[in-house]
Structures are given as structure tokens and as C-alpha cells.
Amino acid sequence: MTADIAIVGAGVIGCLTAYEVGRRHPDWDIVVLERHAVGSGATAWSAGARFPMAATPEHRRLATESDDVFAELAETPAGDFIRPVPMVYVTERDHLDDLRARMLLPLREVSPAERDCVEKILVDMVVRPGEILVTHDAPGFVVSARPLAEAVLTLCVARGRTELHIGQTVTRIDRNDAGLYRLDTEEGSWHAKRVVLATGPWALPEIGRSQPHDFPVKGRTKRVAALHTRLPVASNDPMVYFTEDDLFVLPTSRGAALVSFFRDEWDSNPEELDGRPDSLDLTLGTEVLASRSQTAADHVIGGRTFCDLYLPQRLPAVMESPGSPGVVAVLGGSGSGVRLGPALAAQAVRQVAAHG
């Protein structure tokens, strides 16, 4: 079979790309090639927190388009994995105007009841002099990225015209004289008119005469780490984001929360990370958490770590392979691959469709 489009990678962006193809081109045959399992890799470990925040016009466009698709998915079985969550920001009062300029929703000071709720979660929370707690009336949301990817791909397969093939590591892509692409794996070859590469931080396959490093941007892999801690929370309690520390505490279930913190380690090999934190991940994360809540730090029970690919502008990008029309890569999740995934998928489909 020659597919109308091949999608390499069944993480959240690859699965959303298949969904987007079905929306825009319901007569296209789709083949999804995944080396491990649907939603494995970076998708499996992402916190999936969707802040209503964007720093640039392009970021705002991607966020708005993604929100529209998430709203549509919320009305499907995949909606079980999109959870609204209140969000509280602890920020310096002097930086409040800058924060407002980046928000997609109007901010206001928290009410006494909202502050009480936060202080029940973080009983010894440190609010520094000059800091203020603010929120917005509409909630943000959290995406359970791996089950969402699985649910979205299930929708695609159920509609027909979509095939998923696991255990397929694409190593090379070549274009023949008829303009079709052959995707080589250790198990055989696949053929498609168009290709979207959604490989996350892992290396791209060789593409004809163009090598992966020929893409016009240079990304760097970054170690991403988080902690798991026991706290008196329920899943509908607010997420608390300490903007000055780039630290947030996200309730995940009754009695448990995820703590995301900035891990300043670059050029990690994603093949060497399996989700388990090392001692330095735990030490660094616990130290920054303790600066805001010693009790939360004392109840850390583990964590997670993985890689993401970051681009210089700190936003993901959709780019065409040089010399290979109809081959597009979604590059550099940059920590935003889940929250901006629907818009990135739509852009990738628009670009490959432009080649007929």
C-alpha cells in the first residue's frame, strides 16, 4: 500500500497529526509508524499542564488554535484525559504587569477562600516580601498525555483509513522518480506520498541527500525532571505556580502531587533516560521545593526524568526537509509539545498538503 501520508512517531504530536489529517483530509490513507508504543517516550512523562500564557504573537496563535482542538476533543472519549484545574500564581508584585501581558486570561488577586485552599495544600508555604497570589476565573487544564495520545489514535483507527504499526524504527527516507517516499525500517519498507516526522528529542532518520542537521534550526536536548510528593490534596485542587522559581505544584490525585522544577542540564542522550530520576535530580528538586515548602520537600517519594528538544526561540517549530518537498518535521517540543500539540499538528498537515 502507498499511503497518502506516513507519520513517524506515535507520541502525542504524532497522534494529533493523524487526528488532524482525518479532520482535513478524510479520504487520505494514513500509516503511523512507532518504534516502541503509543505515547511512549517524552509523551509518557510530560506533566501536560496547559497554562493560559503566551509570550509572543506566534505563541498566542499556537495556543489559541490548540485550545480550539482540545475543546473539540473534550466532547469525545479522549476528553476523559483533559482535566480542568484552577491555577494560582505566586509572583512579585513588581512583575505583575509583565505576567498580565503574557496571560491569555485576565488576572485578579486570589480571594481569602482561594488563599486558604492553597495554604491547606502547602501548610508552610513561603511567600516572600513583595509577592502576591493571583489567579484567573476560568481554569487552565491538564492533559494526561499518554492516554490522550492512545485515545486520539483509537478515534483515528475507528474512523478507518488509519493503520498503526508498532516496532518500526525508521532509519532512512528516500524519494523515487515518481515523487513517492520510501521509509526504511529494519523490518521492511513503507511508501507514502507525504511524511510528517514527530520523533520528539530522538534523532531524525536520514532523508535522501539531506541529513537531519540540514534543518535550518539547531536544537539541544534538555533534561526535564519532576518530583512526586505526598500532600493533603484532591485532584480538583489548584495548581500553584511560583513564577520567580519556575516551579509548580500540581495535584494529580488524592494525596499526591507532581512538582515541576527547572533542571539546568543540556545535551542529554534520550536513549539513556528511562523515566527514573538520579540522585542529583532528587537533590536539586528537593532543595528548590524546600525553599517554598519544607513540608512538601520532606514528603518527596520519588520523581521522573526524561528529555525534550529545545529550540533557540523556546517554541516548537514545523519545518520542511531541505530538498524533500512533502517531508515535514515537528521539531523542538521545548517544554510545550503537549499544550501546543494540536496547532503544531495542524501546521504540519497544512504544509505537507501544499505539495499536492
Topology:
Blueprint: E1 2-3, E2 5-8, H1 12-24, E3 30-34, H2 42-45, E4 49-50, H3 57-73, E5 82-85, E6 87-92, H4 96-102, E7 108-109, H5 112-121, E8 131-135, E9 140-143, H6 145-159, E10 162-166, E11 172-175, E12 181-185, E13 188-192, E14 195-197, E15 206-207, E16 220-230, E17 239-242, E18 247-253, E19 256-261, H7 279-290, H8 294-298, E20 300-310, E21 317-320, E22 327-331, H9 341-353
Parallel strand pairs: 1-13, 2-3, 2-14, 3-10, 6-17, 11-15, 14-22
Antiparallel strand pairs: 4-9, 5-9, 6-8, 7-8, 11-12, 12-13, 16-19, 16-20, 17-18, 18-19, 21-22
Helix pairs in contact: 1-6, 1-9, 3-9
Features:
356 residues; alpha/beta; 8-stranded mixed β-sheet; 6-stranded mixed β-sheet; 30% strand; EC 1.-.-.-; FAD/NAD-bd_sf
Write a structural description.
- The chain is built from nine helices and 22 strands.
- The chain has helices at residues 12-24, 42-45, 57-73, 96-102, 112-121, 145-159, 279-290, 294-298, 341-353; strands at residues 2-3, 5-8, 30-34, 49-50, 82-85, 87-92, 108-109, 131-135, 140-143, 162-166, 172-175, 181-185, 188-192, 195-197, 206-207, 220-230, 239-242, 247-253, 256-261, 300-310, 317-320, 327-331.
- The strands form four sheets. An eight-stranded mixed β-sheet has the order 7-8-6-17-18-19-16-20.
- A hairpin with a 5-residue loop joins strand 11 (172-175) and strand 12.
- It starts with a strand and ends with a helix.
- The model has no long low-confidence stretch (mean pLDDT 94).
